[in-house]
Amino acid sequence: MTTIDTVTHRVTKTLRGMLIAVSIIGIILGILALVWPGATLLTVAILFGSYLVAAGVFRVVIAVMADSLSTGSRWLLGILGVFVIVAGIFCLANPFQSLVVLAFVIGIGWIFDGVASIAGGATGVSRGPRWLAIVSGIVSIIAGFVVFLLPGLAIATFIMFGAILLIVVSAATLITLPFRSKSPAIA
Fold first, then answer.
1. Residue 22: enclosing H or E segment and its boundaries?
2. More confident residue, 8 or 166
C-alpha cells in the first residue's frame, strides 16, 4: 500500500466510525426523547433560554464595539440586546413557560410564511404553480393558528416527530453504510 492509500484507508475508517457513533447516539437520543418527553422538553427549554441570553449578550457587545453603526442603531441594538437577555433569563427561570413562547414564535413564523406564500402565488412571483403557493400559504397559516390555540400539544408533537425522525435517519445511516470499501487499496 502506498502512503496515499494508507492515509485514505485511515480517513475512511475514521469517517465510517464517526458515522456509526453519531448514528448510535442519534438512535439513543431519539429513544430517550420518546421515553422521557418531559426531560426532553425541559432540555429544549433550557437551551432556548441559554440561546436567548447568548444572543442578547452578542447584540450588546456589537452595540458597544461597532463603530461603523450610527449612534441610534447602536442604542437600538443595545436595548434590543438587553431585552433579549431579560427574555432569556425569564425562560431559564420558568423553562416550561418558555416552550409556550417558542411555540408562539414558530406559529408567528408559519403565519408570516403563509402570507408571503399567498402573496407570491397571487402575484405570480412564486416558483412553481401559483395555486400550489396559495394552498401552501393557507396550510401554513392554519398550522400557525393551531400552534397558537394548542401550544403545548404543538411542542409535544414537535418533540415526538423529531425523536422519530432522529431514530429513522440514524437507523437509515447505519443500514446504508457499506460493510467494507469496494476499493482494493482500502480493505
1. helix 3-35
2. 166
